[in-house]
Amino acid sequence: MADSCKVISIINYKGGVGKTTIALQLAAGLASLHQKRVLMLDLDPQCSLSVSVLPEEAWIDHIENRGSIRSILWSYYEGNVRLEKDWIAEKALHAGEGQLDLVPCHLDLPDYEMRLVSERPPQAADTAEFEKSRHRLLRDAIEPYRKDYDFIICDCPPNIYFVSRSAMLASDYYLVPTIPDFISCYGIPFIENHIQTLLHDLLPEKERARNLGIIRNRVRRSGSKLVNEHDRQSRQIREMYPDLLFDACIQDRIGVSELMGQRKNIFADTTHRLQPIREELQDFVSEAIMRMNRLES
Length: 297
Ligand SMILES: Nc1ncnc2c1ncn2[C@@H]1O[C@H](COP(=O)(O)OP(=O)(O)O)[C@@H](O)[C@H]1O
Ligand SMILES: [Mg+2]
What we know:
- It is a single chain.
- The protein is an alpha/beta fold.
- It has one domain (6-296): Rossmann fold (3-Layer(aba) Sandwich), CATH 3.40.50.300.
- The protein has helices at 19-34, 48-53, 56-65, 69-77, 109-118, 127-135, 137-142, 162-170, 182-186, 188-202, 228-240, 254-261, 275-296; strands at 6-10, 37-42, 99-103, 151-155, 173-178, 210-219, 221-222, 225-226, 245-251.
- Strands 3-2-4-1-5-6-9 form a 7-stranded parallel beta sheet, with helices on both faces. The chain has a two-stranded antiparallel sheet with strand order 7-8.
- Helix 4 runs parallel beside helix 5.
- The two termini are 15 Å apart.
């Protein structure tokens, strides 16, 4: 794609590794620290991102009376795939000179996802066309907005079913958060193979999303070193994917968790207690930008 917008999906088929946390902090950092225009897409029917950003009443009002990710899936069956401007919650979180918008999610998303698994719409002439057009759904819906945003960040659900696959096809990059422990890292080769096979089957090479890296979250330290298990798993990931492991990592801190419940942009906040978290997240956002620049050059 010739424009400068970058679509980044945060993906891992495991829950609880920090996909939503990383999605929000990356978006907030790009908007607040780097004055970027950022659109977040909450693709997980658990709606964690939506309720971390919008007050509950505003979220319910938005999804009931305006629109949500569910409306995009619905638009496919109307024969007119789109994202309407009204479905976007503008300036959902304060971001200084930047812009931080959100398309919230609806708890009913899985019902609509099921329909996309089984029901071919009239405009898809055959099964092959159905396979292609439904996977391109998000890509087609956000295409007109690429000129309005510098980044579009997709918070994926903890699976690689239809919505995640559609996000993969819409993305320029994907980023894999993990906790550096045995269970959380176990599936990384599987995700990588799965995504590569999917992209290979459905997109020409130059349009396929690239892996931006693996970011460790909820890391535990003992003194200045990582605890044994986290250190061991980190070394294993680095051996397996020497270029992919972020140097930055996010420590396990209650303050990170609290941020999500407070609908607070840490980068627009000056609380002293949050400074170590802010610094870690800043490093992560800077490294993400550096990695993108490296892949672009
Ligand atoms: N670095 C961290 N330190 C402490 N708690 C965290 C951290 N990252 C995430 N959490 C908490 O862990 C839980 C899962 O995180 P979340 O981002 O929702 O994961 P996912 O989207 O992968 O399911 C949430 O309660 C979140 O607040
Ligand atoms: Mg999540």
